[in-house]
Structure prediction request, 266 residues.
Amino acid sequence: MLRWWMLTGILLETAPSALAADAGQPTAPARQRAFANLPWWPGYWVDEAEVGTTIGGALPRNEGGAPRDPANSLAIWANKAPWNDEGRRRLAEGLRTMSGRKGLGWGYPLLMTAPTPLQVLITPEEVLIVNAYNEVRHIYTDGRPMPSRDDLWPTVTGTSIGHWEGNVLVIDTIEVTNPNVFFQGGPPLSEEARYHERLWLDGEKLRATMTIEDPVTLAGPWTVNLSWVREDGFDRMPQVDWSNDRTGSENGLNTIEPPADERPGN
Prediction:
């Protein structure tokens, strides 16, 4: 009995060029020309305000870390977010319960300002933003429209559609699961939030602005200015198994013991 998936495999093996043509795929020369017109952001990028962060979460200022500006943080403790009553209620609940919760990863939007390095891979069809915890943002730049919310469901990284304005990547993201549900440090935004980003290379820094609109938790737009610098110590993306389970710790604060020279007071 020939099943549909077997037939699909036969068709892919026997007529790849025909299928590609039917799908509207560009020819190799056209794709090469498209690549030539795209920017290149090589390296492993770390949030400028997080440079030098240790495994214990401390940021040693004498290692080149820029002063933290809470106004440009996307974490739950960001002090400039224009929360409305519902946002403040969620914020208070998140802060009250965060110490004993298990983190599942950074999640969007916090992964954009976490101390974890980012890599940006640019192709004509999409841009991938990848971190060391195997979290990946797919930003589609092939001209497709933003799908209707009726056709989507909330996910940790949402659905992102982008386009290029010169060397600036413009991104629109919707249907992001409440970031604070995924990770206790994430802002408690609703699934109705919409995220607008502009990313560009400025000399040796990668910069961005992000504006978040959320009728459920915000009284108005929330804009942050972000910047990243290259971490020259990496020649490949480090891979980390996320294990932030604090539920079994004695004090509910930390289950990872930092090295002696990274502990407070040293």
